[in-house]
Each structure stands twice: as structure tokens, then as C-alpha cells.
Design goal:
310 residues, alpha/beta, four-stranded antiparallel sheet, 11 helices, 10 strands, 32% helix, binds adenosine-5'-triphosphate, ATP-binding, AAA+_ATPase
Amino acid sequence: MSDPVKLLSVEGLSVRAGELELVREVSFAIAPGERVGLIGESGSGKSLTALSLMGLLPEGVSASGTAVLGGHRLLGVPEKRLKGLRGRTVSMVFQEPMTALNPLMRVGAQVSEVMTLHGRDRAAARARTLDLLDRVRLPHPAQIARAYPHQLSGGQRQRVMLAIALANEPDLLICDEPTTALDVTVQKQMLELIAEVAPALLFITHDLAVVASMCERVLVMYGGRVVESGPMREVFTRPRHRYTEGLLDASRLTPRGTRLPTIKGSVPSAGAFPEGCVFRNRCPHAGPRCETEPALTGEAHGYACWHPGD
Ligand SMILES: Nc1ncnc2c1ncn2[C@@H]1O[C@H](COP(=O)(O)OP(=O)(O)OP(=O)(O)O)[C@@H](O)[C@H]1O
């Protein structure tokens, strides 16, 4: 029986390539609807952790431990069973959409295909494709559906990937640096969209400001292990591990109490924002009721401020 308060439960996940242990005894859980950030420097094991859950580890790399998502075991199960779960129970959006999309197939057909593969009939899949393209805010969905991937911009392609990931209504969305290849404005729109549509989220990134703006909880990986985890605000304001402290020092996040930079061109509107909250104009809660507490702010993403009761 799965624990009703845990959507995903990972225990003792280790990943090996031969003798080499790349991910060591990683344990964490995600509750339904929860957004969890997975951060850590390059090579710390974030992607391998995610790929283990998808059953997509590269050749010669294997995972052990347990991972249960909505009552379904994800590790050590036959590929055929995993195929049934992938997309339907858990979906992933990768950094580079061009490698994930088929360059020779129209976008609409690629979105439809993931649904017909999971048993939906063609006509229903085609109709839902247009709804999905609309849901990820692609303009003129019918036109986009007829396009080939190279005819779309990077941001549009990543939205198509998100539509594909959502097509079979998964319980959990995993994103691995989904906006790294996009320019800053497009990045911000994409992040807002992901936060809005993800049923529950495991979000991998190097960017602490992104985690601060999107996630309720954070896991910090270092050398293949989770060295620290907890509510995002707690980890970012009172890090317990030296590595997390280092990450915070090196990041664009500014600890509470220090002088905050102001952004040129910002249009602060709500007087209720406290002094120094540089993102008041962009905060999703902006308005007279906002009681933003700028414990940390992230320069690029605009709304890394906390609201009592959030
Ligand atoms: N197929 C493989 N065979 C052997 N080692 C691998 C393989 N894939 C990844 N690794 C190693 O495993 C470690 C963890 O890799 P992983 O891709 O999970 O890191 P990451 O934290 O996601 O890094 P990045 O942020 O750069 O994507 C790295 O040292 C990497 O070199």
C-alpha cells in the first residue's frame, strides 16, 4: 500500500556504473501537488536520480533501492511495465527539446502519438492535442500542430515538450534544467507555466533563484548524496551543510538583511511591499494584500519572496 500523503517515495536509491557508485543511498518523498527542487553542482547526480525514476538510465548504468509512485514500483521492474508508466504516471521534460523531438514528424503527430501509445483513439488524441498546445500557451495551436520542430523557436519547442509530458495526465512531472537553453524572458514564462500546470514537480536546476521562486521544498545533492533537504525557506535561510552555504554564497540569492539591488526599469506598484523587495512589481501575489517578506530574492526570476501562509 502506498502512503496517502506521499505521492513518490524514494528509499536508498543508488546508481552504479560497474564498480563506480554515482548516486548513493538517496531517499526523499514528494507529496501530491508538491513542488520539490533538486539542486547541486554539475556531476552531483541529479540527472541520474531523475533518469532512474523514469527507467531511462544509460547503457551500463543501473539503479538499486526502492521508488514507489502512486503505488507503482519504478525500480527493478520490467521495461514493458515501465513503458506503461512512463508518460502516464511520471513524465519528464529535458533541457534540450531538439534531441527529444523527432525532426521528421509534425509536432501535432508527436503529441498525439504519446496518447495513442497509451490506448487513446486517434480522433480523441488529435482533439486533445490542440487543447494541450493551447494549454501550454502556444498561439494558433492548429498551425503549430502542422509545423515541424525546426520551424518553431526554442521556447515553443520546449512548450511542445511540456504538452507531450502532460498528454497522459501524469501524477508527477520531472523537469531537468528545462529552461537553461532559453533566453531570460522566455525562461521566466516557461517557469511560470510549469509551476501552473505541474501536477507535482521534481525540478532539477543549478539555479537557486529558480528553486526559490518555484518550489516548496528543496533537496541538495553533493557527490552523489542528498546532503540536505527541507522546506525551501529553511534550507536557504539556515543551511546546515557547508556545501549548501557555499552554493548560496555563490548564487544570485541575497540573504535577508543585506542591501538589495534594485532593478532598472521596474515598475513597483504596490505600496504594501516592504522596503527592499526588488521584485514587488513581478510578485504573483502583488497587490494591496501582499505581505511579502524578502528573506531572499532572486534577481532574474522576480518573485522569490515569501508570503505568510503560502
Ligand atoms: N553513462 C555514464 N557512465 C558513467 N558515469 C556516468 C554516466 N552518466 C553520468 N555519469 C557520471 O555520474 C555523475 C553524475 O552525473 P549526473 O548527470 O547525474 O550529474 P548532474 O548533477 O545531473 O550534473 P549536471 O548538472 O551537469 O547535469 C557524474 O560524475 C557523471 O560523470
